[in-house]
């Protein structure tokens, strides 16, 4: 008899696996000095936590994420045990777009508030900013409470408001995970489709991780629209460093 795994379980655990696989690929590419946004030595100088500590922190957040996801699917699941039918491809595309907008909106305002509130920044959000030089598997290095508020609740709202099925959620949350990792990868690789289709990318988010960009570029993980509407958008230029690689330099606002 075949062993069946529910869409709910796949929607919970596949994005976690995708996180480590995709970030692992980027770590293997980390030696590409001609495409790094920071010289390799800056990680040891500017980042105040070890990579071992980052791994532990991410695993803690993912544990909370798994628990909440399982609870959510348990609440919304159909007791009949019948897998809900998939809508048409067009409907799925619309659900993706709705989920992206919901996630971006939630994360922008929660993220910005954690910067404006000195208590929340000092005791919660500053943990993520201890990585001044971002790297791929540090994308979800957050205080557990921040992970719960920004990522887990934001994901739950995206799922519920869009009306997507658990099967569609597998693809959406895997996509969102890949995008988040990519934004923190610390590389500017030629041909990266995320850089082609999204203005919110690794260079854009790198600006936010620097001291001068701490009050700008809050938008994540997909679009930059809220930054532009609410005056927190910091444009940048990508400059080649003489020793190799690139640097995202802010363009002074008028």
Task: For this entry, give a set of tags.
single chain; 254 residues; mainly alpha; two-stranded antiparallel ribbon; globular
Report what the structure shows.
The chain has 254 residues and is mainly alpha-helical. The chain is built from 10 helices and 2 strands; from the N terminus they run ααααααααααββ. 36% of the residues are buried. The mean pLDDT is 91. It is found in: Endoplasmic reticulum membrane. Residues 96-232 form the Fatty acid hydroxylase domain. This is aldehyde oxygenase (deformylating). Its EC number is 4.1.99.5.
Relative helix content = 55-70%
Given the structure, what is the number of helices?
Answer: 10
Structural class: mainly alpha
User: Count of DSSP E strands?
Assistant: 2
Oligomerization status of the protein chains: single chain
The major pleated sheet works out as: 2 strands, antiparallel
| SSE order, one letter for each helix or strand | HHHHHHHHHHEE
In percent, how much strand structure appears in the residues?
Answer: under 5%
Low-confidence segments, given as residue ranges, are none
In round numbers, the mean pLDDT is: 91
**From the alpha-carbon coordinates, what is the Rg to the nearest angstrom?**
19 Å
């Amino acid at each position: 008899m075949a062993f069946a795994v529910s869409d709910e379980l796949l929607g919970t655990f596949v994005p976690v696996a995708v996180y480590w696989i995709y970030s692992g690929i980027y770590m293997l590419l980390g030696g590409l000095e001609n495409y790094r946004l920071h010289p390799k030595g800056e990680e040891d100088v500017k980042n105040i936590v070890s990579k071992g500590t980052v791994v532990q922190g991410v695993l803690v957040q993912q544990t909370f994420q798994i628990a909440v996801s399982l609870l959510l699917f348990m609440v919304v699941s159909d007791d009949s045990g019948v897998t809900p039918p998939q809508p048409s491809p067009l409907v799925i595309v619309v659900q993706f777009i709705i989920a992206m907008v919901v996630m971006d909106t939630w994360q922008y305002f929660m993220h910005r508030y954690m910067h404006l509130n000195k208590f929340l920044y000092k005791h919660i959000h500053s943990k993520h900013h201890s990585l001044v030089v971002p790297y791929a598997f540090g994308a979800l290095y957050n205080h557990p409470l921040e992970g719960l508020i920004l990522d887990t609740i934001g994901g739950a709202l995206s799922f519920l408001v869009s009306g997507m099925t658990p099967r569609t959620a597998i693809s959406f949350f895997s996509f969102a995970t890949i995008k988040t990792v990519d934004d923190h990868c610390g590389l500017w690789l030629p041909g990266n489709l995320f850089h082609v289709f999204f203005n919110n990318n690794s260079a854009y988010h790198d600006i936010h991780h620097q001291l001068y960009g701490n009050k700008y570029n809050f938008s994540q993980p997909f679009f930059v629209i809220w930054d532009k509407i609410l005056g927190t958008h910091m444009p940048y230029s990508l400059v080649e460093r003489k020793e190799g690689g690139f640097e995202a330099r802010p363009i002074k606002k008028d």
